[in-house]
Amino acid sequence: MILITNFAFGQDKVTIDKNLPKYEIKDEFNRFDDIGNPKNDFESLKFNFKSNSEIEIRNSYTSGFTGNDIKFSIDKHLNIKKVTYNYWTDVVDLDNLITYRVKKVNLKLNQNPFDKINGLRGMYILEVQHIRNDSLIKTEQIKGKFKNFKGINKQSSDYKWTLEQNKIWYGITNENGVYLKPDKVPSLKSDYKILVKEIKNIKGYVPSKIKAFVVINENGKIEEKPIRFLGQLDKSIEKQITKLLIELTEWYPACVNEKEVKSQIPIVIGTE
């Protein structure tokens, strides 16, 4: 991992806005919170009180291969002492390193973090300069928002919304709440030979290998929608195969934290 450095700037003031827009909406601002990635407990928001008079707010993102960190250092008078932006990657051209300089910042908080940290929310817009060999390449605007969920009821609609959005963001589920990376994947329970026999009886062109993505529900049954076949298949053939998959297969469903869940998997059916 190589850091593709940062820089900070001078002093600005935090704006306190008690009517800050709600965190739990989809907009152009990148989200950071302390509801961990359900797979590895990675938290994108952290607070660090360096002393009674200074707090550091850190927003982090990682894809596993690239990532970035944004840090705000704020004193008890709500002066922004320093802002840094770091970008890192596992693949980097050492001869053409890019450094980043935060030129401007507009940071708003819903409350004074030195008075209360629980429920703290913030929104910001950064103006970040990309610099290579002491020359300005471009200036990028970065929009972000964050929320501290410590102490918030995990059954609340705000918490549940954020948890589900994080699952989508980290590729754990899709937009419909279907798991893409369960702890335990589904496995076939019924007799595969019966399915193949009935597929062979279908009139018309049926390839020797049928590939599809299917959704298996908590009861171990394939759902009619969405089934996505790969390759060229006549619509009437797809419809017949779909009917057979639903009627003739039973599955041990996927599990997450030992709980049966709905999941999507690829399947391959050999007919020869």
From TrEMBL:
It comes from Oceanihabitans sediminis. This is TonB C-terminal domain-containing protein. The lineage of its organism: Bacteria, Pseudomonadati, Bacteroidota, Flavobacteriia, Flavobacteriales.
